[in-house]
Design brief:
The chain crosses the membrane at residues 21-42, 291-320, 341-366, 386-413, 434-454, 683-708, 735-753, 765-789. By secondary structure, this protein is an alpha+beta fold. The chain is 49% helix and 17% strand. Strands 14, 15, 16, 17, 18, 19 and 20 form a seven-stranded mixed β-sheet that branches. Strands 3-4-9-6-8-7 form a six-stranded mixed barrel. Strands 13-21-12-22 form a four-stranded antiparallel β-sheet.
């Protein structure tokens, strides 16, 4: 019986080769796209899932309710972790996590690396397996260091690394360490990244800040006991906060700050480790919003649904040519279940072939997909326990929906009508129309969302930021180079070259450089009986001119004034905090860690020194050399930008041979801030194009079947004098109505979804009706072209031949 069903199914599919090809191709493309989209989403959801104790691992963060608004940050004071372990028995383990160094030296050879300072609990909490060396307490001694397998090969080659000594550049000098263990390389789906681990006591300024509760520098992770809950911990943390942050709470109360919903001005909270990849509060996380992977899954479902609708429409429409076969089967004694099994079996065969083709296409396209969208996907993601069962479940649902429903519908039809060929009733046409509308609703929705996302990203790239970014080269200064001396030497080397307009320095890059850096520094102090908070930017002479900043009051830093080393420039937002322009200019600010009050000598126009996702905040610029420089900026003339970049690289190598640095233009850095959005936007655009193509494949095949049924009608109309244009309009108008209806349904849904997405941006475009008109025009144009191809062909046929057809 099964063999007979299979043989008949194969014959029927071969007989209707056009419909079969359209079905298999459409489903195969849909399966391919869905597999790639699901793999992309699965990678994002896989972050930090490999840790054995992931359910108990949490990251601490603090919320502070200032007068200006609520601040949430994961940077915490150095003495917090020891106090936490002492006062919270439910904290099984805890570790601080902070960048300690970036340079390692072995036998006079230097290597760039990410050296992180941690506490001894770190490797007991997190699942970073140790391959060799001391596995129980590898960071027992302050002179111990744990190195990853990749760095061990890079530094020691094939030699045994355990027991070897190397040097790290820490706080301006080289210190010797002993490799106590080698760890497996950190997985690429880990939010915590490192090349080496050393004790936290080696991080910058530890000796000065180990007892300072008013300075926040690093992240803290805790492992709760199995019986403890995050909610219970946060309730107990209120007493802890009141004890150790008492001064900060008093200052907030004095300024009139309003407590949060829990009644606290300062709160200590926990964030599950598996959430930090999606949370911008965490310094280690915040890579993307959960919106993106969920949207990828949804788009994958949409594309599969569109392909299923094609299959259903074509199966129902194609059944007209098999009406007498179905009728004869029923007269000869076939039960309804047998007819359903026969028709559903054909659907399973088509879907199976499409799935195999889709998996093969996904395998071969994966390298190109990774390169195009800067992904690091692997088919190893399919090993996740939910993926393969999910794929099988999707396959079963596709066959049931795409093949089962049409089979059930056809098998239930009246036998007499079937034998007469009256298979496609008005009801089936309504079902077909509903499915076509649903298809194009999804396609139009994707087009609308993609257009709005593209407009927003284009707006972010082109919006004036208030400073010059096109002609400024940013040079990251390596850890082992004296930045102040490097700035002086680069000024001297470049001053005689035509086209070099200015050379200056800063401690924070603009945007995100090729070194991956993105930092901020915030300083708070009491001024006239209230707290003032400001972003703090260390700059050097000529910074205002090099960056094209606009002075609105006062003057710039000048070498002619010896007191400018304790002077400040502020932006307009900071001036507003100090009481306005007149009150701010000349004000003496009692900045912490400064021996004397520092005077405001100038005010610059507000500029976007952070991502456009954030509003401009208060900013203070200083040239105090106690704040070390980390970047050198070179302003060059317009024109030969690649030539100037080569000149800067050559001069750096001449001054520091063998010292690696990776300069970049600031406009590249600002664009790099939005690369994740650009990557996902590219995926969405591709998905929208695919959805339209698959929809049009089904629409084309449906139009072929309908034109075939109306061939005689077309011939009669031509004989009676109908024009080609009139016939094309007649045959196409029903499809045009369906597409227009789809756009009308999709537009308000797209507007709501994108309004929610745009809320994440401080600077955003308004969503206007033009986007929906354009999306409708695109969908309509594509649909009209698709249908008109067959309509024109039918209208141009010889009427005599058309009347003899059918």
């Amino acid at each position: 019986m099964f063999r007979n069903y299979l043989k008949i199914a194969w014959r029927n599919l071969w007989k209707s080769r056009l419909l079969t090809a359209v079905n298999i191709l459409g489903l195969a493309v849909a399966f391919t796209a869905s597999i790639l989209l699901v793999l992309t989403a699965a990678r994002e959801f896989s972050f930090d899932q490999f840790h054995d104790h992931k359910q108990q691992l949490q990251q601490l963060y603090i919320s502070v309710h200032h007068v200006q608004g609520t601040e949430e940050r994961s940077n915490l004071p150095m003495p917090l972790t020891p106090a936490l372990k002492q006062e919270f028995p439910e904290v099984k383990a805890a570790s601080r996590f902070m960048d300690a160094s970036g340079m390692v030296r072995y036998r006079d050879k230097m290597y760039g690396s990410d050296v992180m300072g941690v506490d001894p609990d770190f490797l007991r909490m997190f699942s970073f397996p140790l391959l060799s060396g001391e596995k129980q307490q590898p960071l027992r001694s302050l002179s111990n260091v744990v190195i990853t397998e990749r760095m061990a090969r890079k530094i020691f080659g094939s030699a045994e690394p355990v027991g070897q000594s190397l040097e790290m550049y820490l706080e301006g000098r080289w210190k010797t360490f002993i490799v106590s263990a080698v760890a497996e390389d950190v997985p690429d789906n880990s939010s915590l990244e490192f090349d080496m681990l050393c004790r936290f006591e080696h991080v910058p300024a530890y000796a000065d800040q180990k007892d300072a509760w008013n300075s926040s520098t690093h992240e803290v992770f805790v492992q709760l006991s199995d019986q403890a809950t995050a909610a219970a911990f946060e309730r107990r943390a209120k007493t802890f906060v009141n004890k150790y942050f008492a001064e900060g709470i008093r200052n907030l109360q004095r300024d009139g700050a309003v407590p949060g919903k829990d009644g606290a001005l300062i709160g200590l909270h926990l964030m599950p480790l598996t959430d930090i990849h999606f949370n911008s509060i965490s310094s280690s996380g915040g890579a993307i919003s959960r919106f993106y992977p969920y949207m990828l899954l949804l788009i994958g479902i949409f594309i599969l649904f569109i392909a299923c609708v094609n299959f259903m429409n074509l199966t129902i429409a194609g059944a007209f040519s098999r009406s007498r076969e179905i009728g004869m089967r029923k007269i000869l004694g076939a039960f309804r279940g047998q007819v359903i099994m026969q028709l559903w079996g054909e659907a399973v065969l088509v879907c199976g072939l499409a799935l195999l083709a889709g998996m093969a296409m996904a395998y071969f396209l994966l390298p190109g997909y990774n390169a195009l969208f800067s992904n690091r996907l692997s088919l190893n993601l399919l090993r996740q326990p939910w993926l393969l069962p999910g794929l099988f479940l999707v396959f079963v649902l596709v066959t049931l929906v795409a093949g089962g429903y049409p089979a059930l519908m056809i098998a239930r039809l009246n036998t007499i009508k079937v034998l007469k060929g009256s298979l496609l009733t008005g009801r089936s046409n309504r079902v077909r129309n509903v499915l076509i509308v649903t298809q194009f609703v999804i396609s139009s929705l994707l087009i609308c969302c993609t257009l709005i996302a593209w407009q927003q990203l284009n707006y972010l790239r082109k919006k004036p930021l208030g400073y010059s970014k096109e002609q400024v080269i940013s040079i990251p200064v390596p850890y082992n180079v004296d930045a102040e001396l490097a700035l002086t030497r680069m000024r001297n080397q470049l001053s005689g070259h035509a086209g070099i307009l200015a050379v200056t320095g800063t401690d924070i890059n603009m945007g995100r450089g090729r070194d991956g850096s993105s930092a901020t520094s915030i300083v708070s102090f009491d001024y006239k009986g209230r707290e003032v908070r400001s972003h703090w930017l260390r700059v050097d002479y000529d910074y205002v001119g090099a960056m094209g900043l606009q002075l609105v009051a006062g003057r710039d830093f000048s070498r002619a004034y010896g007191t400018d080393s304790s002077a400040l420039l502020i932006n307009e937002k900071m001036a507003a905090q100090l009481g306005g322009m007149e009150a701010a200019l000349g004000a003496l600010l009692p900045v912490e860690d400064s021996a004397h009050p520092q005077q405001v000598i100038g005010i610059v126009k507000d500029f976007n020194f952070k991502s456009l996702k954030e509003e401009i905040g208060p900013l203070t610029l200083n040239i105090n050399k106690e704040w070390p420089l980390q970047y050198i900026f070179v302003k060059v003339a317009a024109g030969n930008l690649p030539g100037y970049m080569n000149l800067v690289k050559q001069q750096w190598q001449a001054l520091y041979p063998g010292s690696s640095t990776d300069p970049s233009f600031l406009d590249e850095n600002t664009d790099r801030q939005y690369r994740r959005e650009q990557r996902f936007s590219g995926i969405f655009i591709s998905a929208a194009v695919l959805a339209i193509i698959i929809s049009c494949m089904g629409l084309f095949a449906i139009s072929v079947l309908i034109m075939t049924r109306r061939t005689r009608e077309v011939g009669v109309r031509k004989v009676l004098g109908a024009s080609v244009a009139g016939i094309v309009t007649l045959l196409s108008k029903d499809f045009v109505k369906l597409v227009l209806l789809s756009v009308m349904i999709a537009s308000p849904v797209a507007w709501y979804i994108m309004e929610q997405w745009l809320q994440h941006y401080a600077y955003r475009i308004p969503v206007n009706i033009g986007v929906f008109l354009l999306a409708g025009a695109i969908a309509l144009l594509v649909a009209v072209i698709t249908v008109s191809i067959q309509s024109v062909r039918a209208a141009l046929m010889n009427p005599v031949k058309s009347i003899r057809t059918e």
